[in-house]
Amino acid sequence: MILLLRITKQNGGRKIARKLRDWYPGAVYHIMHRGVRRKPIFEDEMDHQVLLQIIKTSLSKYNCWLHAYCLMTNHVHLLIETGDIEIGKFMKYMSECYAIYYNHKYGYRGHVFESRYKSCLVKEDAYFLQTSRYIHLNPVKAQMADYPEYYLWSSYRTMIGITDDGITEKKKTLAYFPKNSIYQYREFVEDIGHKYIVQEQHIRKMIGEDELWLPW
Q: Which part of the chain is the Transposase IS200-like domain (predicted)?
């Protein structure tokens, strides 16, 4: 596991050391990356498609596997597993490529994403599954879709076999269910009871998404 300090900025003449994120080969993260000042990072359908293509290229370049994702209006959620390259390189490449595209298209300058993405190590099987559920329910909780499969910009439609986005790795997630059952995974995600309310609150707190659910 890597535990290092990085000198990041000066505050009143004093340098501040920021701890690098924990990483080891095979580490799994829940990542949330938000638009700078929480501004929208997608303006049309093409923007979503471009970021998904950039993610696909980034996964191949940095030997990572994507287990779940959701592209919201002003932020993205990723459930991602690293290989032998630490997660920061993947995120830097992905963010910079999309920023170049976005700024060129709309005539903007400067940052598109907040400089410090939020991440949480996912170490337990139960937490992995709950995070997958949390990510896929984001549009429903934000009242952007009645059901997760109605939302086009997440991995859920791929997970349940409606389509194939070419970037989502389904095997690890479905392996938690008897006979890799898509039906049981779907039932797990779409359970409308209050069975998972505590887990949802914990995940939201851990990733720093502590505001009320909002339609973006």
A: 24-138
